[in-house]
Amino acid sequence: MNTVVILDNNHKEMEGYQRMLMSFQKQIDCKMFEDPEEAIEYVKNHTIAVIVCELEMPIMSGREVLEMVEMISPSTIRLAMTQVKDVAETLELFNRCRIFKLILKPFFLVEDLEEPIQEALKEYEIWKEKETQKKKMENELEQLVLNIQQLSIKLEKKKKAYYKIYQVANGFVKGNLNSEMVELNSQESSVVSSVCEELLKEFMRYYMFEVHNYKFHLKRLQELFHHPEKGCLFQVQYKTKEEASIELLQKIAYGIFLGGYLCQQLLVYYRAMMMIEKENSVYVLRMFCQYSKGENMYKIKEKNVRKFIKDIIEEIANALSVQFVKGVREQEFAVKMYFKEEGE
């Protein structure tokens, strides 16, 4: 039950308020005070929904009382009672104390006192509902921030772990490439190195993706390589009746990436068809890469660089069939790559 405090130093008027609100006492807990200090002390120690205060009091004015109540209990709805002697002074007081309603004296009907209190109680309930919603939102926001912090910590650890792997693997790639690229000049070596570094980064990205289904990988691969407006077609067909495990699907997706990436790096126009099939317990990824013969078909003009990049990607594709599938539950994976000139 909400508590309403009524303060007036006039004993006779307080008796009148009690008679007016006698039937109202069943709905609210109404506390009557003639001493301002006692009323303020009660507000300090209790949750008060509404205070109704006489403004004209000799020891402590109603304005002082309401200002103290605002500091002590900001949620308490404040009502003032007074006989209007100076309109300007009354309005200034009304605004300064942020009074919800001003009850003008004298009043003789129960409704003159009861209705303003009822309206103030409704305002208090609205405030409580808003506070409840606010608290709920604050708690949800706090939990969300906590979840984000925990997720960020996990992500940062994961990024550091994968970055270390990347650095080590990149060192191996560059070290091996240096011995293989002795026949290439510095510019050609730079092209090959950048291609291989991007391949390694993409390999790491596929492992950062973790648990994703076929549609996710397909969408990403098509965003990378399927550009019909530029004459670059990239299609994938999933010809098995069941979807491969997540561990294997990541490797298949990376295998598909290799074919698309090879076409993208070497060819101006291309048609790449990737087919995922299953032969008994073995998943097979067949890559058909078609290209038109002509002067402007290649992005990289140096034939030896093109062959070097093609050989590297074929080696990685072959490794997919053997090394990348270790640890996958009783499944095998093979990659087959075909490159044909248009018309063959």
Q: How would the blueprint of this fold be written?
A:
Blueprint: E1 3-7, H1 11-20, E2 29-33, H2 36-45, E3 50-54, H3 62-72, E4 77-82, H4 87-96, E5 101-104, H5 110-180, H6 186-209, H7 214-225, E6 232-238, H8 246-266, E7 270-279, E8 282-291, H9 303-322, E9 332-341
Helix pairs in contact: 2-3, 5-6, 6-8, 6-9, 7-8, 8-9
Describe the overall structure:
By secondary structure, the chain is an alpha/beta fold. Helices cover 55% and strands 18% of the residues. It contains nine helices and nine strands. It has helices at 11-20, 36-45, 62-72, 87-96, 110-180, 186-209, 214-225, 246-266, 303-322; strands at 3-7, 29-33, 50-54, 77-82, 101-104, 232-238, 270-279, 282-291, 332-341. The strands form two sheets. Strands 2-1-3-4-5 form a five-stranded parallel β-sheet, with helices on both faces. The chain has a four-stranded mixed β-sheet with strand order 6-7-8-9. Helix 4 links the parallel strand 4 and strand 5 (101-104). Helix 5 (110-180) packs across helix 6, helix 6 (186-209) runs parallel beside helix 9 (303-322) and helix 7 (214-225) runs parallel beside helix 8 (246-266). The model has no long low-confidence stretch (mean pLDDT 83).
